[in-house]
Amino acid sequence: MTPDLPRIACFDLDNTLIDRDAAFATWAEWWAQSVGLGADAVSWLLDRDEGGFRPRADLFGGAKEQFGLRASVEALEAAYDREHPLFTWAEPEVLDGLRALRTAGWRVVVVTNGGIVQQGIKLEHTGIGAVVDFGCISEAVGVRKPDPVIFKIAADRVGATLEGGWMVGDHPAYDIAGGIAAGLRTIRVGDHHPEAATADRVPTHHFQSVLSAFEVILAG
Ligand SMILES: [Mg+2]
């Protein structure tokens, strides 16, 4: 037991704290226009995005072929990593919820699978990075959800214990299974990836909005 350490509240970023899919759709419209493509290209991208889980090299390789783009796949991918995070935003109520948890004594951490560049820009651009104790990006720490080690790294980094902590996220296989493996209580947000919601990945709570998660955690 480590009763003296503060407890930790972990949050996934994409489609948990921010509406990643909405941001992607807005980026897609901007990007299509910027390269001289129309609504068909936007639909094409939205159909193949898979909530961001389709490898970007695959997505842009396909787009290059489909639309005869001149830029290399690597260049398209690098531009995407820098540009699409600028289309993300956080609702004021989400920033308030994160602040309220910290004020109440929780150590608040974002635990996100992804690249340093794009996730780092998202944290900065949305203002989320400024109101949490640590943004734990898988590429930076060398381990991904659902590996429970990533939660241990996050807890150590902010001087917290995992005991009595929470993991909040939208993905049953990464966020909920990962949180359970780390010994955390879990809250699933939304209905993304229903195919992954198996019997061994049942969260402590399931809400449609992350705002309900703040209430439950604050209530103790
Ligand atoms: Mg997510």
UniProtKB/TrEMBL annotation:
One biological process term in Gene Ontology: small molecule metabolic process
Molecular function terms, GO-annotated: hydrolase activity
UniProt superkingdom: Bacteria
Keyword field contains Magnesium: yes
Keyword Isomerase tagged: no
Pfam families: Hydrolase
SUPFAM superfamilies tied to this protein: HAD-like
Protein name per UniProt: HAD family hydrolase
InterPro entries recorded: HAD-like_hydrolase, HAD-like_sf, HAD-SF_hydro_IA, HAD_sf
Species annotation: Kribbella qitaiheensis
